[in-house]
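User: For my dataset I need records formatted as: sequence, then structure tokens, nothing else. Please produce one.
Assistant:
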Amino acid sequence: MFDIQEELKKLPGSPGVYIMRDEAGGVLYVGKAVNLHNRVRSYFRKNVGRGPAIDKMISLIDHFEYIITDSELEALVLENNLIKEYSPKYNTLLKDDKTYPYIKVTLGEDYPRILFSRTMKKDKSKYFGPYSSAGAVKDTIELLNKIYMLRTCNRVLPRDIGIGRPCLNHHIGQCTAPCMGSVSKEEYAEQVAGAMEFLNGNYRPILKDLEERMKSAAEALEFEDAAKLRDLHESVKSVAQKQKITDNDGDDKDVIAMCRDGEEVVVQVFFVRDGKLIGREHYYMTHVSEEKPEEILQEFVKQFYAGTPFLPRELMLQYEIEDAELIEKWLSERRGARVYIRVPKAGTKEKLVELAAHNAEIILTQDREKLKREEGRTIGAVKEIASLLKMDGIERMEAFDISNTNGFENVASMVVFEKGKPKKSDYRKFRIKTVAGPDDYACMKEALTRRFTHGIEENEELSKKSIDPGYGSFSRFPDLLLMDGGKGQVNIALEVLGSLGLDIAVCGMVKDDHHRTRGIYFNGEELPIDVHSEGFKLVTRIQDEAHRFAIEYHKSLRGKTQIKSILDDIPGIGPARRKALMRNFQSLSEIAQASAEDIAAIPEFTPASAEAVVNYFRERKQGTNNS
């Protein structure tokens, strides 16, 4: 038994990381401390004005653990890693699933290439970026390959020089063919150097060279070549104009500012490379109800730069952050060179921070409208369904579907929607064990029985451990059960729930003659539903998702041959004859009732193999009757 007061006395006065956990072992919060003894004890003092969110978290703490480090810097690194791993409920979190595109020049090769990359590795290559647009990166790479006629192949050079023929790019004048020895290593290196000048933002030599080549081609009456050079010239000018000069010092820096409206926070980052703004990106922060702006910004910096491969020389922030010196030291160690954190107070740098903040505000305003529309599709749609069914409220809905192939290999799917959105972590799938033929009602009965029996058993186990329901995979029950069929499917569900002593609302979808949903069957009557309403659209999405999930599972089992057909047990029936049976009969029950003459009429069968099938099902039926 974990005694919090006793464990608090044992805390060391060392730097480290602490992890707060609930009864089920879930991580509530991860934090760092210069002095673990003082920091962790502060959570359990009374009347310190922490705010309702922290008070709620503390009420949920069942036990804590801690990891001692040699320094506060080590604690900072460890804290970031643990936050990223656990995504604790009460930590301010960076919502980020983006990876950034880079341009990679493979300088480790004798004949380097220019490639698109999503990662920045410690190798001999030179990386440019990160950029905010993958499309722009690909366009730039294509342009450079055309201008400098660099290779795009994967051949290992110089080992493969002279092997095979040059590729199409050489024939259309877009590659100097180092694979055929048509260009020396030194000449090719000059081409690569020119491309890297371009990537560093030095466009003038390229523009001047293209202008001279264009004029020479025109004077020589080579108008087609002149036109191509003119197009390249315009492309370079277009790329150059996209680069906005932001500073004259030519340094790499990130400009970071935020906008907040209640619980919503957007952080805007401008990426400045060699004094030029090359792109921007925005990020959302969650769990920010009681955090100050400078605290939110500090958490962003810690979490963002723990995961990004490129570290600029300078971070320009909107607010002063408490751990600036410590974070500077950490980032400098990661970069291998000094990193500065600054808050500009005047001049062009301050204007750039203001611009980033203004962009964050615009994004927040735009996304608020999008969130309102999304809320209408989700929470609003759920409210419509609850109103139609005259229910007080609906949070969790579950839907089931059956999939098989002509009665073979029955499977069932269970999908879960909470607050109108799919909760895929709670999806479940079932291989039907007791039904041999195409009996959807029987299959549904088995699936529902197994689902809710598991739930009851899990809740009993949780109750023994004094844990609230909801932590197990099946223990949370739905407010509403959606059946794909009408009255028949609903009655099956009500029968299962009644036998288990559960009181859960069940509704079914009533179809018209064209198999389109026309209404909801609930409490013994059909309720009309507006097919243009968000509620109807949500019901349709849930139906489609259950159907998709069932079919996907069924296909995966068939593809991996994980379901062993009953026909495999019949002597003399191999894959070809099994497929022939499934092709000529609608279901397993039809095969079981077929005569030897019917089966022998199939080309793949002999009279003896047909008789083996009939005898197998006859003996199987006798065995079932005897039992």
